[in-house]
Amino acid sequence: MKTIQGLMTTCAFIGFVGVAQATTSEITCGSTGGMNRCPLPGADQLHVTVKQVLEGDCTHEKGWWADSDGVVVDAGCNAVFSYQAAK
Fold first, then answer.
1. pLDDT surpasses 90 at 17
2. Torsion angles phi and psi, residue 5, rounded to 5
3. Count of CA atoms in the C-beta half-sphere (13 A) of 61
4. For the CA atoms of 47, 36, 54, 24, what is the dihedral angle to 10 degrees?
């Protein structure tokens, strides 16, 4: 009986330790009409999404995009972006 309980405890511990949590961070970036880059090195290698539009049209590839130096906004896009390591 002790062997089964020990095995179940070990499996539960391994299952708990094996669960990785993805950490999500945020950056606010805005444009007053022209292009603006908010520094976030390696942004093109991250999973970047719009969390909240604050103002303007923040359509991906039109109002914002990510490059190797950061998040780039254009044409009045002002937003809060979330980012995390790409899966």
1. no
2. -65, -40
3. 0
4. 20
